[in-house]
What does this fold into?
Amino acid sequence: MKISPTKISGCYHLQPRVFQDERGRFVKAFHEGLFREHGLETCFVEDYYSVSRRGCLRGLHFQSPPVQHAKLVYCVSGAVLDAVVDIRLDSPTYGQFETFELRAEEGDMIYLTAGLAHGFYTLEENSILIYKVSSVYSPSHDVGILWNSVGIPWPDHAPLLSQRDRTFPPLSHFQSPFSYRGA
It folds into this structure.
């Protein structure tokens, strides 16, 4: 697995080896020793997956302190445009974003440390995204920022959104509870 840092400290693009033959695909999504070597979280306590229609946008989500979490996301069916936004005060990349196209066939993954907001737009029908997180879900700490307030070049200006995602504050009005602790 190749683990590459991105312009946002604490965000990594992971490219596992994909074994493909006449039976299908086989991908190793997690290796504790390799993650530990790169200083990444290795204790994931919950896994989730979402199945989304084409044209759906989910995000930009994160879990706030004291139950913030690191997250590993990857697409196992279909394709998504994945976005990460730095919301850590005093970070040199505060308010900046990176996007990644995650396709099941490629096996690419994104690792996010706490203090990074996450969202994605589905490029194909019934795309499935898996999330591994390092803290237990807490409804009262599950929050977000408005999907179109950061300048991300989403493929659609009127995506399918949840009512909740429509009501998040824009980044310009967001009071971040996260601090940057250096690289």
Observations:
- Residues 2-178 form a domain with the Jelly Rolls fold (CATH 2.60.120.10).
- The chain has one domain: 2-178.
